[in-house]
DNA sequence: TTAGGGTTAG
């Protein structure tokens, strides 16, 4: 049942001190230390540091090899180890092998040390198993440590076994045990079991409620988490900052501003909640996700202490709201104040750069990564690929993508969509065919890229097949975007009737984008009457869709129906439907300047022209 | 010697 990763006689666990020469350690021994004297044991008793004891231990192995003396030393050492938590299991484990009598505190200390280590948590279970095999009975300290090890290593089956043992030993009613049980189940995504433990706990404290609430929120049941919070309030239990951070994050997920304001009032009124940097960050994040960027700014400005997460919440929150310029402005401010950005900051900044087309700042982030020896991998690598692709540097995007060690579905998708947008459909499809070999499953967005690639290259049959494969092979339900891509694919290829038929057979109502794709096909192939009927449908669904009016007016003018074209433009004006102007932005001296098509009003226009060498129109 | 916290891409 328990994985055999570690054994106490594993040579890798021989303590450093034991393999070192005793002469090099002699200088740090107590000055009156003489292992040959009878006072040796009393020296040992008065030695308070593990380091000193380790040295005595190492020295005594050579000078006093008597088993009894060794045992005395080991016992004393183990007691000290158990007192200084967490301990290095690599040193403490061999001691266990030397002890004649079982030592529960030392086992507890070792299991805790392993459970809290990043890579060795599963070994905590192995040591626990060894402990049981030696007939040592765990106590109310052991079980939480073992359960923590289970949670960290996602070992739910082992956790269930420990649960059973805790019940048998009468430890399951201990509030620490039940709380760690809940956490173990919640971390392992077994929310029902967590709830069962919660419901059956004879004693529930704030940690019990908070753990259960967090379990719900992490599993995506934010509403249930919030519900439990109010249930807790109903039992007259006062929440603290930790609880509020979790409930605020649930509220952010729900995007419920009313609830968010209610929670903010709770924070202000409740003396139990300390408005520290954690609660402040959670409030900023909540306000942004609930759509009140101004209040988020206010909370942010009033925070007496901010950390990098506070800045990240603002920068990424604004970017998620589509306020990319504001997001970059925040980043500039953060830099001016000398706050060091982290991965999260840079991902958000790259995202804003990608959406604004600000290549220069994007390049700066890339150079920053190089300067700080941060590998462009994972989240950062994906954001960099996306930024380069969206800013028109598809070759740079490919270069970053190729250099990445850890590629996932997001990396492939960013690259496929980028290539498709740049008219390199063939390369995009080649990359898609590479995904199964790399063991990476495509998702819905990958297929948007794949279908766009087919559409741009005119691969009708391939496009049809990929569309079919979505549901038959990959178990993905096509969304409106995919239907839009298919209509575009068929329409561009001149298969207008089939495109119409395709729309008629859609299992979901077509939106303005799907119909817009058909309208685009009418423009390419000069289908005026069909265009008119499609336009009528679009007007019904989205009466203010300016792009469709412009397209229809162009269909008229292409067919030399100038009067109709002008009539439509006039109707647009009457309805106050101005065509959304083309827009570009440029960074100059660290400031993002946005220009609309034909706009020469910006005071920096002349400078920009000079910068662009007059070769590109703004 | 024991349990619960925020920000991350198409």
Automatic annotation (TrEMBL):
**Repeat recorded as keyword:** yes
Molecular function terms from GO:
RNA binding
Question: What Gene3D superfamilies does UniProt report for this protein, alphabetically?
Answer: Tetratricopeptide repeat domain
InterPro entries named among the record's database cross-references: E2_motif, E_motif, PPR_At4g14850-like_plant, PPR_rpt, TPR-like_helical_dom_sf
Q: Mind listing the UniProt keywords for this protein, alphabetically? A: Repeat
List, alphabetically, the Pfam families matched: E_motif, Eplus_motif, PPR, PPR_2
Q: Which GO terms describe its biological process?
A: RNA modification
Q: Where are the PPR repeats?
A: 103-138, 205-239, 307-341, 408-442
NCBIfam families according to UniProt? PPR (TIGR00756)
Similarity annotation: Belongs to the PPR family. PCMP-H subfamily.
The record's PANTHER family line, in alphabetical order, gives: PENTACOTRIPEPTIDE-REPEAT REGION OF PRORP DOMAIN-CONTAINING PROTEIN (PTHR47926:SF437), PENTATRICOPEPTIDE REPEAT-CONTAINING PROTEIN (PTHR47926)
Specify the protein name. Pentatricopeptide repeat-containing protein
The organism is: Vitis rotundifolia (Muscadine grape)
